[in-house]
Amino acid sequence: MSAVDKLHDADLEIREALPDDAHAIAALYVWHVLNGRASFEEIPPTVDEMRKRIKTVRDSGLPWLVALWRGTIVGYCYATFYRPRPAYRYTLEESIYVE
């Protein structure tokens, strides 16, 4: 099955992240921190820290989404405000991590 076929498969679900997703999100992110080049972190955040990050994004009115394949989180994405200065008020930064 190609990646395109998987996108149309009923086994894929995309939904808003929940606080209980923090464990799976943190576990997925560990690889990116330790091996990838997309994250600027050097130490993987704890589950509690990830839960706080999800809450902060959601409380700011921005999305934090998870992708589930057959009920298992296989990716996530979120948006944050780029910079606090007024000139950037319409600018967001997105982060996307997949298994």
SSE map:
Layout: H1 3-7, E1 12-16, H2 22-35, H3 47-59, E2 64-69, E3 72-81, E4 92-98
Antiparallel strand pairs: 1-2, 2-3, 3-4
Helix pairs in contact: 2-3
GO molecular function, one term: transferase activity
InterPro entries: Acyl_CoA_acyltransferase
Transmembrane segments: 61-81
Word description of this protein:
Keywords: Membrane, Transferase, Transmembrane, Transmembrane helix. GO terms for molecular function: transferase activity. InterPro entries: Acyl_CoA_acyltransferase. This is N-acetyltransferase. The chain crosses the membrane at residues 61-81. The structure is a single chain. The protein is of the alpha+beta class and 99 residues long. It has one domain: Aminopeptidase (3-Layer(aba) Sandwich), CATH 3.40.630. It is 32% helix and 28% strand. The chain contains 3 helices and 4 strands, in the order H-E-H-H-E-E-E. The chain has helices at 3-7, 22-35, 47-59, and strands spanning 12-16, 64-69, 72-81, 92-98. Strands 1-2-3-4 form a 4-stranded antiparallel β-sheet. A hairpin with a 2-residue loop joins strand 2 and strand 3 (72-81). Helix 2 crosses helix 3 (47-59).
> What is the typical, i.e. mean, pLDDT?
93
CATH superfamily, by name, is Gcn5-related N-acetyltransferase (GNAT)
Number of strands: 4
Give the overall silhouette.
globular
* Largest sheet descriptor: 4 strands, antiparallel
- Please report which band the strand proportion falls in: under 5%, 5-15%, 15-25%, 25-35%, 35-45% or over 45%: 25-35%
With strands numbered from the N-terminus, the spatial order across the biggest sheet is 1-2-3-4
Assign a percent range to the helix content. 25-40%
Order of helices and strands: HEHHEEE
- Roughly how many Å apart are the termini? 17 Å
User: Helical element count?
Assistant: 3
Rg over CA atoms, rounded to whole Å, is 14 Å
Based on the structure given, which CATH architecture is correct? 3-Layer(aba) Sandwich
CATH class: Alpha Beta
Poorly predicted runs of 5 or more residues = none
Structural class: alpha+beta
